Amino acid sequence: MGFCENRLVSRPQETVPVDSPVPLSPIVVDTLEALLPGDNPVHCALRRQIPFTTMEEGCPCGCTSVDLWVDKTKCDPAPAHEGRPLADGNYVDTDVYAGVILFTSDGYLRSLEIHSWLEEPIRRWPDLSHLDVAPSHYQ
Question: How many domains does the chain divide into?
Answer without folding.
Answer: 1
